[in-house]
Design brief:
about 110 residues, mainly alpha
Amino acid sequence: MNSRRLELLLNFLQKAPEDAFTLYSIAYEYALAGEHEQAVAYFRRLQQLHPTYTGTYYHLGKSLEQLQQRQQAIAVYHQGLEVCRQQGDQHNLRELQAALNNALEANEED
Protein backbone atom coordinates (compact mmCIF):
# COMPACT_ATOMS: atom_id res chain seq x y z
CA MET A 1 0.00 0.00 0.00
CA ASN A 2 1.18 3.47 -0.77
CA SER A 3 0.83 4.99 2.71
CA ARG A 4 1.50 8.52 1.47
CA ARG A 5 -1.25 8.25 -1.13
CA LEU A 6 -3.63 6.81 1.46
CA GLU A 7 -2.78 9.63 3.86
CA LEU A 8 -3.56 12.20 1.15
CA LEU A 9 -6.82 10.48 0.30
CA LEU A 10 -7.89 10.38 3.94
CA ASN A 11 -7.14 14.11 4.18
CA PHE A 12 -9.28 14.73 1.08
CA LEU A 13 -12.04 12.70 2.66
CA GLN A 14 -12.03 14.94 5.73
CA LYS A 15 -12.69 17.91 3.46
CA ALA A 16 -15.33 16.16 1.34
CA PRO A 17 -16.61 13.13 3.31
CA GLU A 18 -19.08 12.06 0.63
CA ASP A 19 -16.85 12.38 -2.42
CA ALA A 20 -17.34 9.26 -4.52
CA PHE A 21 -13.92 9.20 -6.16
CA THR A 22 -12.10 9.66 -2.85
CA LEU A 23 -14.10 6.90 -1.15
CA TYR A 24 -13.47 4.59 -4.11
CA SER A 25 -9.76 5.37 -4.12
CA ILE A 26 -9.39 4.71 -0.39
CA ALA A 27 -11.26 1.43 -0.66
CA TYR A 28 -9.17 0.40 -3.66
CA GLU A 29 -5.92 1.21 -1.84
CA TYR A 30 -6.98 -1.01 1.04
CA ALA A 31 -7.96 -3.80 -1.35
CA LEU A 32 -4.59 -3.61 -3.12
CA ALA A 33 -2.88 -3.92 0.25
CA GLY A 34 -4.93 -7.01 1.10
CA GLU A 35 -6.77 -5.17 3.86
CA HIS A 36 -10.15 -6.36 2.64
CA GLU A 37 -12.13 -5.64 5.79
CA GLN A 38 -11.15 -1.97 5.50
CA ALA A 39 -11.82 -2.06 1.76
CA VAL A 40 -15.29 -3.51 2.30
CA ALA A 41 -16.11 -0.83 4.87
CA TYR A 42 -15.24 1.96 2.43
CA PHE A 43 -16.88 0.26 -0.55
CA ARG A 44 -20.06 -0.20 1.52
CA ARG A 45 -20.01 3.46 2.48
CA LEU A 46 -19.56 4.38 -1.17
CA GLN A 47 -22.40 2.05 -2.16
CA GLN A 48 -24.68 3.63 0.44
CA LEU A 49 -23.88 7.22 -0.55
CA HIS A 50 -23.56 6.69 -4.31
CA PRO A 51 -25.49 3.55 -5.31
CA THR A 52 -25.10 4.31 -9.03
CA TYR A 53 -21.28 4.44 -8.87
CA THR A 54 -20.93 1.28 -10.92
CA GLY A 55 -17.24 0.61 -10.26
CA THR A 56 -18.01 -0.11 -6.63
CA TYR A 57 -19.72 -3.43 -7.13
CA TYR A 58 -16.94 -5.41 -8.80
CA HIS A 59 -14.29 -4.47 -6.24
CA LEU A 60 -16.65 -4.82 -3.29
CA GLY A 61 -17.52 -8.31 -4.48
CA LYS A 62 -13.87 -9.25 -4.95
CA SER A 63 -12.99 -8.06 -1.45
CA LEU A 64 -15.90 -10.03 -0.04
CA GLU A 65 -14.65 -13.12 -1.86
CA GLN A 66 -11.20 -12.59 -0.33
CA LEU A 67 -12.90 -12.59 3.08
CA GLN A 68 -14.56 -15.93 2.23
CA GLN A 69 -17.98 -14.28 1.96
CA ARG A 70 -18.87 -15.60 -1.46
CA GLN A 71 -22.66 -15.51 -0.99
CA GLN A 72 -22.49 -11.82 -0.12
CA ALA A 73 -20.22 -11.25 -3.10
CA ILE A 74 -22.72 -12.96 -5.39
CA ALA A 75 -25.49 -10.73 -4.05
CA VAL A 76 -23.31 -7.65 -4.66
CA TYR A 77 -22.57 -8.79 -8.23
CA HIS A 78 -26.31 -9.16 -8.88
CA GLN A 79 -26.96 -5.67 -7.48
CA GLY A 80 -24.17 -4.25 -9.58
CA LEU A 81 -25.47 -5.88 -12.75
CA GLU A 82 -28.83 -4.21 -12.23
CA VAL A 83 -27.22 -0.82 -11.61
CA CYS A 84 -25.03 -1.19 -14.70
CA ARG A 85 -28.06 -2.04 -16.83
CA GLN A 86 -29.88 1.02 -15.51
CA GLN A 87 -26.83 3.23 -16.10
CA GLY A 88 -26.01 1.74 -19.51
CA ASP A 89 -22.49 0.87 -18.33
CA GLN A 90 -21.55 -2.00 -20.62
CA HIS A 91 -17.91 -2.22 -19.54
CA ASN A 92 -18.66 -2.78 -15.86
CA LEU A 93 -21.63 -4.97 -16.80
CA ARG A 94 -19.28 -7.38 -18.60
CA GLU A 95 -16.78 -7.39 -15.72
CA LEU A 96 -19.51 -8.05 -13.17
CA GLN A 97 -21.05 -10.81 -15.26
CA ALA A 98 -17.67 -12.56 -15.51
CA ALA A 99 -17.08 -12.16 -11.76
CA LEU A 100 -20.55 -13.52 -11.02
CA ASN A 101 -20.02 -16.50 -13.32
CA ASN A 102 -16.69 -17.29 -11.65
CA ALA A 103 -18.20 -17.02 -8.16
CA LEU A 104 -21.10 -19.27 -9.11
CA GLU A 105 -18.72 -21.85 -10.62
CA ALA A 106 -16.61 -21.79 -7.46
CA ASN A 107 -19.78 -22.32 -5.44
CA GLU A 108 -20.58 -25.44 -7.46
CA GLU A 109 -17.07 -26.79 -6.87
CA ASP A 110 -17.34 -26.41 -3.09
